[in-house]
Amino acid sequence: MTEPASAAPSPAAPLTEAEDKQWASFAHFGNILSLVPALIIWLIFKDRGPKTNVEGKEALNWGINVAAGFIILQVLNAIVAIAFFPLKILTGLLIFALVVVNLIFAIMGGVKVNGGGSYRYPVNIRWIK
After folding, report:
1. Is 124 inside a domain boundary?
2. 58-93 residue pLDDT tens
3. Distance between alpha carbon 96 and the CA centroid of its chain, in Å?
4. Tell me: the pLDDT tens digits for 15-44?
5. Is residue 101 in some structural domain?
């Protein structure tokens, strides 16, 4: 007996304009937690909505930069703790500043995109084009 040929899955329906705007803003807001929400949103919805593709990439690039900065500062903090302890306060302040800047920019991006605009992070290396 032969098994019936399975049908190829159909592509997902395109997002409506409101859904596209909503997921694009969620990508920016997700950066408050980490880069993972922006990555997931971009991977799932990049082909379904043009705004989500553009804004998701922007949010993901920002998340990558913040994560890299955080890792670099943590390594520097560990080295400084061993070599010259008083500088540990400075690296701790830099880590705190990175968290605050990320929080502010992620909220600004989410609000701007939710309002119908587009947001570009001021200092953002664009790893994903």
Report:
1. no
2. 999 999 999 999 999 999 988 888 777 778 888 889
3. 19
4. 888 999 999 999 999 999 988 999 999 999
5. yes
